[in-house]
Amino acid sequence: MSQDLIRYCLATADNALILGQRNAEWCGHGPVLEQDIAITNISLDLIGQARLFYQYAAELIGDTDEDKLAFLRTEREFNNVLLVELPVNDWSYTTLRQYFFSQYQQLLFEQLSRHSDPQIAAIAQKTKKEVDYHVTWSRDWVIRLGDGTTESHERIQYALTDWWGYTGELFKATDYETSIIGTLLTDIYTKWHEAVEATLQEATLLMPEKTFMHQGGKSGIHTEHMGRLLAEMQYMQRTYPNSQW
Amino acid sequence: MKSSFIIKQFYGDIPDAGSGNQTSNHAASKNDWPLWEVFIRSKQGLDHKHVGSLHAADAQMAIENARDVYTRRMEGVSIWVVESKHIHASNPDDAGSFYEPAKDKIYRHPTFYDLPDELNHM
To answer: What confidence score (pLDDT) does residue B52 get?
Structure first.
């Protein structure tokens, strides 16, 4: 149980941290100043969530801390889904991925806020409000781009086709997830699908057909992009151990 | 023709007339998002105060942008946005006739009242 709880906290933190790191790549490159700030705000929110879960995991593990967990674990030790680690240089891809992920987080944290583990419940309650905003913001963009110009529609339709195959892993429960949250993922999948369907319809986008679902991240098998991301993110701490900002 | 959306002025550049971060008379291109003025109420009971401006495609986006740009450090509890073109300003050249006549009319100030201490924000 305790080992599962630790893995669950780490995996939840990893999802947030890695997406935060990916979104932060927009810093200084956003399409307009206001959106540059919006996406980096979301990055900071995600990294804040990651910290809460890492801190709890560190407490359970003992003799470690949040920084070690974030900066000194290796690729195979990260359990984030593949969806969050893939590199992106198109705004439609970023906003759509954010929507898929935030919609998932919103439904998950709503349930986790009633979890029997008081610490998990407290973290979920605290972070749910910011996730609500992430859903609003990213959903607006999906609709804006989908129901926008010919070009924006085309781009986000491509994004949808590409991302769809990475959404299945979010709901495919691993042993450590089942141990901590039971069949919750099956329940929220139905709600997630309904919400996404409504959004895509409003965005005049075509719902993708059933497709092959990529997976592996949850058990530490990552894409070739993960190593580079970690190299960049962990470089400072590995080169100058215990350096302080 | 430079891209009209964001004209960057790098350090060391010598500004051409009409380029860079200065007010110019160029009509906004059709692809530009309109400018919005942002007003924030910092807490209940206070007025909305002008805090700055930003670009957005429509009112909804303007409010969200204002949330992200101007309320990151808990500055507000309520946001108003209004498209800048709807604001009409007085002409600085009129300053003489507009404001100076009030200067010597101190009897217009309600300075004769003692305000109770509980009355804040007057």
So the answer is: 94
- Per-residue CA distances from A85 to A22, A25, A88, A101, A222 (Å): 7, 12, 9, 12, 8
Q: Which residues of chain B lie closer than 8 angstroms to A136, CB-CB? A: 64
CB of A28 within 8 Å of a chain B CB? The answer is no
The SS3 of residue A153 is: helix
Q: Which residue has the tokens 């507009």?
A: B98
Question: H or E element: which one contains A10?
Answer: helix A2-24
In order of start, what are the domains of chain A with their CATH numbers? 2-239 (1.20.1260.10)
Q: How far does the CA of residue B12 sit from the closest CA of chain A (Å)?
A: 20
Residue found by looking up tokens 């980096």 in the block: A40
Q: Which of B5, B60, B65 sits opposite A34 (nearest CB)?
A: B65
Cβ contact (<8 Å) for A34 and B57?
no
- Choose the mutation target among A27, A32, A135 for the interface with B, i.e. most B CBs under 10 Å: A32
What is the Cα–Cα distance from B84 to B42, expressed in whole angstroms? 21
Closest CA to A233 of A80, A118, A36: A80
Q: Mean pLDDT over all residues of chain A? A: 95
The per-residue pLDDT for A124 is: 97
Q: Please, are residues A68 and A51 in contact by the beta-carbon 8 Å criterion?
A: no
Q: If you measure CA to CA, which chain A residue comes closest to B7?
A: A32
ipTM entry: 0.77
The rounded percent of chain A whose pLDDT value lies above 90 is 95
Q: Is A182 left (phi over 0), alpha (psi -120 to 50) or beta?
A: left
Chain A CB contacts of B32 below 8 Å: none
Say whether residue A136 is in contact with chain B using an 8 A CB cutoff: yes
Using CB atoms, which residue from B60, B61, B72 is nearest to A41? B72
Question: Which residue is associated with the tokens 């080169």?
Answer: A239
Alpha-carbon gap, residue B17 to A104, rounded angstroms: 51
| B95-108: pLDDT as tens digits | 888 888 888 887 88
Instruction: Give me the helices (H) in A90-183, please.
Output: 91-112, 118-146, 150-164, 168-171, 175-181
